[in-house]
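Worked example

This section walks through a single chain of length 278. The input is the sequence exactly as stored; nothing has been trimmed or padded.
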Amino acid sequence: MLHGAERAPVLLCLVSLLILAHPSGAHGRAFEVRLLKGDEQNGVWGTDEFQVAVNKFGVLEHVIVRDKELVRHAARLYAFPVPPGGGPAPRTVQGEGGTRALSVEPPTMETHDEKGTRVFVWRCRISRKDIFDGKPLCDVVERVRITPTGEIYVSYDFEWLETMRWKSFNLLIFPDKETVPGRDYLVFAGERLLTGKLTLGAAAPGQKRIREAMDQLTVWTEVGPLHFCWDSETKCSLTWQKYVQLSMTPPAVPRKDPVYRGQKDRISYRILLPVSQQ
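Given that input, the structure is written out below as tokens.
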């Protein structure tokens, strides 16, 4: 039997062998969201199993799991402000430039690591030079958290700065055009459970649109189930004709009536990817 003084060197050797077998640096790096390509302003982030492209405008796109793209656009805001007195509502799009830019001034961006999770925050003010002489119309704060377990958390907080109408005010998600069409889906909407197949084409049988305040949407892809989960009440529309599209509208924005100055609302959802840690 080894006594205390004799056991100490043996324990040290065992600890050393464990450290060599599982280097802390390598283990930590394997279980963190890291920059795979580009830079912090415009980069591809992920792990050995999944990746997502994030740019300085707050657009999330090209969500890939094990070499299969599942989501082409995972977060993108489209807004059509109606000019005072009426007239055509110009299209403004998050991430685009020129006359279709979401704001006159570019958004600010912050990002940092939080125990392996990559955190992003963008702030911008929707504005156009041809509406209210370029005055800000709506404050937008977007927050994104990408965890090493394959969860992408997205939230948009809105505060309207002018009383006005919006022809449309939607956050759009576009699943991949090849890997998602034709797949089975499941929707939880309150007490309702809806199931079917995302078969494209006007000649395909069955409905092509679901308009519900969804709690969860699951699509079974070839690499596993892809989940969308909502953390706040949101008007949702899932359509599939020529392509699959998921649209979200904050409840504060009515179809025809104005949104009033000082109103606030939020869209908050999570995308759960089919990765081994999930």
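What to look for: The first helix runs from residue 4 to 21.
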